[in-house]
Structures are given as C-alpha cells and as structure tokens.
Structure prediction request, 596 residues.
Amino acid sequence: MAEAPLLQREMDRVRAEIDALFEELLAPPADPRARLYEAMRYAAIGGGKRLRPLLVVAACALFHADRSRALRVAAAVECIHVYSLIHDDLPSMDDDELRRGKPTVHRAFDEACAILAGDSLHALAFEILADEATHEDPFVRIELVAELARAAGPAGMAGGQMMDLNAAAAGLDLPGVTRLQQLKTGALIAFCLEAGAIMGRLPVEGRTRFRGYARDVGLAFQIADDLLDEEGSEARTGKRVGKDRDRGKETFVSLLGRDRARQQAELLVRQAIEYLDRYGAEADLLREIARFAVERDH
Amino acid sequence: MAEAPLLQREMDRVRAEIDALFEELLAPPADPRARLYEAMRYAAIGGGKRLRPLLVVAACALFHADRSRALRVAAAVECIHVYSLIHDDLPSMDDDELRRGKPTVHRAFDEACAILAGDSLHALAFEILADEATHEDPFVRIELVAELARAAGPAGMAGGQMMDLNAAAAGLDLPGVTRLQQLKTGALIAFCLEAGAIMGRLPVEGRTRFRGYARDVGLAFQIADDLLDEEGSEARTGKRVGKDRDRGKETFVSLLGRDRARQQAELLVRQAIEYLDRYGAEADLLREIARFAVERDH
Prediction:
C-alpha cells in the first residue's frame, strides 16, 4: 500500500534523527562495559518503524514544542519500547529468534547481556527525560517522568505483558484482550501523545480529545498487528508470524474473524481522526499516522 | 557482633516503615496481574538488611528532610536494589537459588515472572520519585530522578553487573575490581547519601565530603561482603556463600588476602567517619552505619 508522501518523508526523517541521537547517547566506553553498549546499540539503532518516536514528534509539533527536545522525548520512549522487545523476546518469555529482521539480542549476544541491555535502556529513558536538555522547566520534565514510569510499569506495559503471558491459559474474551492490549501497547502509545501535550503545556482539561485519538490509534494498531500476524510475511514484518495462533492465544482476529477485525480497525481510525477535527493542516501528520496504523504491511 | 542500640533501633524502625510503604505501593489488583504483584511483594517485603533505605533516612535526617518523604526516596532506592537482585539471580546471570533466606523469585514463581517483577520495580522506583508526595519542589524530584537513573543504568549498577559477568574471564586486578564494585554497588550507595543532600537542598559545592563518606562506606561494605562470602554462613547471610571463589572471580579477598582486606575495610570506615567530623551527634547514625558495614556477620 502506498504511504502518503508527508508520512513517508517524516518517517524517514525521524528514523535518521533517532539513529543519530542514539549514536550520541550510546557511544561505547573503552572498558569491559563495551559489550553491553554494543548490545544496546544493536537493538536500538537502525531498526523498526519508529512509530512511537514519530507520534511523539508529531504531537510535539502540533503544540509547537521544539523539535530537538521532542526528539529526546522520542528517544526516551523508544528506549522503553526497545527494552520491552529485548525482554519479551527472551527464551523464558516469547522465545523469539527474529526481531526487526535480524537475530534477537539474546541470540546475537547472550541472555545475560540481553537482560542487562534491556535494563540499561530502561534506566537510560529516565536519564534522558530528567536532563535539562529535554526541557528547561522541571515541572515539564517531572511530569514526563511520572507519565512514562506509569505507562511502562505494572499499571501499564509490564502489567500487560504479564497478562499476555497468562493469556493462553486464561482464555480471554474481547474485553479481556482489549484490556490486555491497552496495557501492553496502548499505555506507551498514549504516552507518546500525552508527551506532546506536556511539552506544549496543554492544560490537562484540554487533553481529553487528544487522549481519545491515542486510545483509538493504539487499538487500531494492535488489531492491524494481529491481522499481520495472521496474514503478513516474515520477510516484511521482520519477525515470526502466526505465533499467537500457534500458542493458542486469543487475539482480535481469533475473536472477531478477519473481516470484522479489519472493519473494527478502520472504524477506530475514522474515530481517531474525528478527534482531531478542531485542528487544521497542522494535524495532517497525525491523521496520516492513524491511517498508516491499519494500511501498513509491516 | 553486638550492634549499637541506636543502629539496631533505627534499622528495625526503617525495616517496619519500608515494609508498610511497600504494602501500600504494591497492593495487588484484582485481575491477571495479581501474580506479578505477588512476585514483586515476595521480593520486596520483609527481607534484607535495608541498608540502602537506612542510609537514605539517615542522610535525609542529617539535612532535616521530612521523614515520610525520606521513606519514599528510600523505597525507590530499595525498588532498584531489589529489581537488581531478582535479575542478577536469574539462571542466565548468577543462577542463584537462595536470596534473603528463601528461594529466589524465578524459583518461587518462574523466570518470565521474575524478569517482569524486576522490570516493574524498576519503573516503580521512578514513579515514586516523580510523585509530588516525595517533594513539593519539582527541582528536587527531577534531580532525584536524574541521579537515580544514572546510578542504576549502564554508567552505574547495570554497567557494573556487566563487568562482573565478564570478571572471571577478564582476570581483574585491584583497580579493576575496585572500579567494578564502584559501579555495581557503589553508585547506588552513593545515591542514598546524595539523595539526603538533594532532599535537604545542600548546595552541590557542599557535598564533596559527604560523597567521600559514601564512596568509602560503599567500598568497605563490598570488602566485608567478599569476606562474608569466604567466611560467612549461608544460614546468617541467607544466600549461597563461597560462590565467587567457585567461579574463579577475583575479589578484594582473593587479591589482598583476608587480613589485608579486613585492614583495608577498617581503614575505609575510619576515613568515612572522618568525613563526618564537621557534624555532631546528629551524624551518629551515619557513623554507626559505617562501623556496621565491616562488623556485621550477615
């Protein structure tokens, strides 16, 4: 499916900018920790769609936050996302061999190194946010830290992964799968948008519709992921496909069927875009990201 | 060895206060994440010397910071310490079966649950610090976050653990072991003291001597740990002993011999106490903690 020029251009730009920032943040030291940094770099640099950084940058732009600062927040979110991928891929978790088209970190390095690389990226995320280069106002920085910690922890991503590990046994229904995904992937995606509002000092009472966009895009993205897991190719997605079905896990696709799942995702995208109707062309990138969530093939 | 009454009293008090705070922070939810919270509670509540929380509370008291706030910082540090123990004990890391006198988290639960419990405690530490209940001034909170993230990450604890994993192969000398321990355990201990200075708004230029205390106590504590690993009993330490020797790792004891290692630790403790000479009786608890670092049998 053709990506819109604006989206493609911004994706390429953010990808290059995030890689450059990670090159700077993850310069390997000349001591025995070099291998740890190599593992962090292997996982963090040069891969992925950078959907979350793109969302942060787009949301920050909408509220006129400085781009170089927005990129630091984007890198912090990506640190959390990448750490979660490293840990989720471990043998005792999802036991995956392939990620972003190359061997997972524990296979390219070793398990201990993978665990530590994840832990290090986790800490680095908060170090980045706390640095005054991210924003001169400590109120802004501490709000970012509070929201990211909540989104990443047991009330968010880590809690969702725990629910996911139990999912095959639990035999979840549609509300159960929805709740699981809202924690596992939705919380961090919601943070990306919230970060824009925080950086742009949007008052809390003005964030409701913006949060609606985040919630719907997050869910649409996950339904599309489930469809790709059924229909996609390993070559395009860069990871093993069909694995949820193999593990007997309920997904949006197993519960709704492909057609209804696709309709649901498209409905969510239309809804997400409606939440942006008070904005003009300055929200076009967010609109295109919403469409991309379901139109992508990877 | 008899513990001084002041130290014993404060240790017991902090232990009870930290347990009560964790009971509150880790109330299990009524959903499939309950098992994750159970694992976090299993690791965090009711065990350990609580040396780090005690250091935070003692340092905060010296600078007249409110005790209930100090306890929140203490709990954040303990979250980081406990997460590191959970991950370090994993089969692919140190592969330990016993911790604080009971089975390690991955043995009492399972490996995936242990990894996620560690990750969750890691995020929770920053959530605690970022909450305004920790301090009303966002400058104070963001400085705590910045310093803790640095102490926990690849430039601190996680980096030190990586060096430790390579230590058997690397054949470290005394400066190498010192550097490893300064990262692996020293950085977090130094944060405990620094947190007191931050909470008490001690200007950065006034912290030099205080940092000297932290560095020397941290190192003395580690040398004593190496001695206990050689001489201590599993029943008293609550963990396997003799493991560094079994793994062919150089320690302060293997490099210096027991007698010189003990002398070195005692010298460091005297030095640490000298750094406190501008303070009166209000620093007695910190003096007793320094002595305890080398006089303990667990």
Summary: The longest helix of chain B spans residues 174-199. The CA atoms of residues 26 and 41 of chain B lie 7 Å apart. Strands of chain B lie at 98-99, 102-103. The mean pLDDT of chain B is 93.
